[in-house]
Amino acid sequence: MSFGPPLLLASLNPAAVAAGDDIPNAVTIDGTTLSRSDLLGAATSVAERVARAKRVAVLAEPTMSTVLAVVGCLIAGVTVVPVPPDAGKVEREHILTDSGAQAWLGAAPEGTGLPAIPVRQHARSWHRYPEPPSGTTAFILYTSGTTGLPKGVMLSRGAIAAGLDALADAWAWTRKDVLVHGLPLFHVHGLILGVLGPLRFGSPVIHTGKPTPRAYAEANGTMYFGVPTVWSRIVEEPTYATALSSARLLVSGSAPLPVPVFEKLVELTGQAPVERYGMSETMITLSTRADGERRPGWVGTPVAGVETRLRDENDEPVPHDGESIGGLQVRGPMLFDGYLNRPDATDMTADGWFRTGDVAVIDPAGFHRIVGRESVDLIKSGGYRVGAGEIETVLLGHPAVAEVAVVGLPDDDLGQRITAFVVAREESPDLAQALIDHVAKQLSVHKRPREVRLVAELPRNAMGKVQKKLLG
Ligand code: MLC
Ligand code: AMP
């Protein structure tokens, strides 16, 4: 049977659904399960309501309404701007203004100036939409840089399809899998890999709300996604960790997986996790393979269609000898189309490679180890990318703050702990908590410093620049 041109959400193929080939548990989230046919009917009804818009904002709570909003937009060819549900005023306004979103689709936060288009879970439509061109921007994902407010990463349908297919190849991901995760739905990991992957390949997905060890253990999946913080919490609970022994693949990514956590997972589950590396701008470019070596501390080889190289500070090639460290550059069909409104900020080389900002080592067999980031001003905390500059700007807007420097200090649970060193104009016993709450309210809860240290002065060099490497 021919289903026409390849569809981004291949498993939601209307012809297959009409032929009666259903998947009863296509998506489970927030206590609700929809079959493939119900999902298609409800999402097509969303598509009908939104089809005339160009770009809409979706408050990316982990709910079926979010899934239907995203799928409805993809059916209609409307660009989705996922907004973190814990975003505060400054961050949310920035995302809405910068993206030019015309409306909220589904839930809308209080006090918003934009109209809201409802998502009706029980509505159904069987209208058929043509597949939008593969160059259409599917998502604008906001992600932090070292300075300023987050930038909008434009990801096309074609990039997403290529990125997902490369993972299906690396992980032998098929409709026989049941994917389990509880990651946020406003980033590549939870939304694109974790929701669109299953809808492309027809593997049921169970979203656990939060990625807790217990929820993972009880979900009974074949494939699990987690950021390293999730895996380190799981190995702290051996009973739950052991329950994952029957899974086919435990996948870690978004931040470095500590070697002791890798080893503990092997001990408790009998299997080594698959590690993969990616970015909002590139999707996943490196991974260990379901059928290949899994080496603690290493993120594997380029996935299908990807090439990598290392460059030194003078842009000269660095050998792939397993020891020499260089700036990692990547190219491949899953790369983004630039930052919205910021063509100047896209860090591409003249010959078309993307500078990741990560430093890495490549061994002669093509295995990659991520050594760290070039800038101390990009922090990864709990798998979230957070810019020191955006937090510093918000803290400087607080009347009690004279000077501030934000760094990511090593943290066993979060990888890096966002820590603000503050020279205060006036000190009070509750100042530290007030500053943490200030960031949580203005930017987002997950960007709040976990620690504020009040200091008399910041270490500066002769030019007056703060020496962040001396803070800690
Ligand atoms: C605490 N809370 C506050 C607060 N202090 N709320 C407001 N103001 C304050 N001052 C409350 C919140 O309400 C919330 O409650 C809870 O604290 C959140 O706690 P947390 O400590 O911030 O988070 P935690 O639950 O510990 O989360 C850890 C985590 C999370 C691992 C679950 O960091 C996570 O989901 N990370 C995933 C990030 C991710 O997906 N990254 C992928 C990027 S894509 P409540 O009740 O609401 O919980 C990418 C590409 C690639 O990187 O390679 O994948
Ligand atoms: P984000 O834009 O949130 O996707 O963050 C991308 C960054 O996360 C990369 O530039 C890396 O610094 C980091 N990252 C993602 N996956 C890994 C990994 N497996 N190991 C180390 N760092 C990673």
Give an account of the 3D structure:
The protein has two domains: 1-374, 3-Layer(aba) Sandwich (Rossmann fold); 382-470, 2-Layer Sandwich (GMP Synthetase, Chain A, domain 3). The protein has helices spanning 14-18, 36-50, 64-76, 89-99, 157-171, 188-201, 213-219, 228-235, 238-242, 259-269, 388-396, 431-442; strands at residues 27-29, 32-34, 55-59, 79-83, 104-105, 116-117, 137-143, 151-156, 179-181, 205-207, 223-226, 249-253, 274-279, 283-287, 301-302, 307-311, 326-331, 354-362, 368-373, 378-381, 384-387, 401-411, 415-424, 451-454. The chain is α/β, with parallel strands linked by helices. The strands form seven sheets. It has a nine-stranded mixed sheet. Helix 2 (36-50) packs across helix 3, helix 5 (157-171) crosses helix 6 (188-201) and helix 8 (228-235) packs across helix 10 (259-269). Strand 3, helix 3 and strand 4 form a beta-alpha-beta unit. The model has no long low-confidence stretch (mean pLDDT 96). The longest helix has 15 residues, at 36-50. The chain starts with 13 loop residues before the first helix and ends in an 18-residue tail after the last strand. The structure holds malonyl-coenzyme A and adenosine monophosphate. Adenosine monophosphate binds next to strand 13, strand 18 and strand 19.
